[in-house]
Amino acid sequence: MSPELYRRARRAEAGADRAEDRRRLRLEFFRAVLAEGLESLKHMHVEGASGQESVRAHARFIDDLVRSLTRLSVADSRAAGQAPTAFVVVALGGYGRGELHPSSDIDVMVVYDGALSPFVQRLMQELLYTLWDLGLQVGHSLRSLEDCVAMARTDFPSRTSMQEARLIDGDRKLFTRFRRVLRDNVYRHDFGEFLAMTLAEREQRYRKFGASPYIGEPNVKESAGGLRDMHTAMWLGSAKFGTRTLRELADHGLITPREQAGADAALTFLWRIRNELHFFSGHKNDVLTRDLQPRIAKNLGYESEGDTLGVERFMRDYYLHARAIHRISRRLIARCQETLSRRGSAERRQRQQALADGLVFFDGRLHLADRDSTALRTDPVRIMKVFWHLHRLGCELSLDLERAIEDSLDVVDAAFRAAPAVRDLFLDICRSWGRVAFTLSEMHELGLLGRYLPEFGAL
Question: Cβ(427)–Cβ(387) under 8 Å?
């Protein structure tokens, strides 16, 4: 589509002799294109396009716009007698991921090699001025390869945005060098420090926007269980394992196929909500306030059923998807942390504390003794025993044990619920003072509480 858009723009300004007239006609043309594109995006959304379809379509549309403006600027420079020099225009951040919402910032960076040439300087100015004149919110930077390395080493937001860089236009060889230079000089050398900075940023974000996926007025981007949780986990996965997508994480065995499917569904759900918030508000707005929740629910097709209001059904779906993102991102981060302490964990495993019921305790977590997840299926009472030990020790569950519990939930049936041994373990947990809320919360997060007590299944 981009070559066609470029040709249409050239035809629209073909009759102008003066630079001022050419610029005026160019702006008129692209204002009409932008208005048409946003209206088309809104129509897609209203007609029920998924969140993924909408954000990808909008990113492609802006790609065409930026690419066409870049090529027009290059043509103007050539006509003015300026010698071209190597450059690349890259998309950063959410735009780089191909996840662009109607009122999101458009983050672009122009990268050059060596000294800054008049050609690149003019290109940057014309591109930015035109995007600003079109009324777009643009984040921008102009950097040499050396600048990129220096910024990635010292500035956390710059580093994470450049990890998600995507080529829009320019010299592909230079873009390949850009990615290789960052990988060889930054990403491979300081993962421990980057992990610490990432977790500190997450804690600061949680303090500001909420550390629980279940808050009453969630920020769909920044609150726990919001989009930023997945971004954080993906930054770490990219830096440590070189993965850029959920599919690549699953292919590397870092998440399970079920977790990949859950994350995909949760992300496209939150993307659709965020699109609706932007369209309904008419500006960038990521907070599901209580007064907006009924309106957003209605616009997304949620109707009341019996005694259950549409907004209640909508928020229940939101919390389920937010919980999935929170859990999957937490697990991926934990897997990244394990890579830094694997040797120490192996040594500490030699001093592990053996428990009954096929469990061991070391490194502050409960683990399966022989890593055989089928043990929970052959003796379902062990599932409740896991939480009894968790409650007694005041520790956490290992990733493998969490996944083994999820894989075994289908054996939690009527016989399990009626078993006296299971009942006694559960009541012992409830009667023991101190960590009851935490233990029941863990049971709820992994799906056991709703299976054992169906009344909790709707929460």
Answer: no
Every domain range in the chain assigned CATH 1.20.120.330: 192-340
What's residue 339's pLDDT? 81
CA distance to 73, 91, 117, 119, 169, per residue, from 173 (Å) = 21, 16, 18, 19, 11
CB 116 within 8 A of CB 70: no
Instruction: Write the pLDDT tens digit of every residue in 397-437.
Output: 988 899 999 999 999 999 999 999 999 999 999 998 778 99
Compute, in degrees rounded to 10, the torsion defined by CA atoms 248, 254, 257, 260.
-70
pTM here?
A: 0.89
pLDDT at 88 over 80: yes
The rounded percent of the chain whose pLDDT value lies above 70 is 96
pLDDT at 2: 64
Domain 349-456: which CATH number of 3.40.50.10540, 3.30.70.2190, 1.10.110.30, 2.40.160.90: 1.10.110.30
Q: What element of type H or E holds 299?
A: helix 293-299
- State the CATH class of domain 2-187: alpha beta
Q: CATH number of the domain at 192-340, please?
A: 1.20.120.330
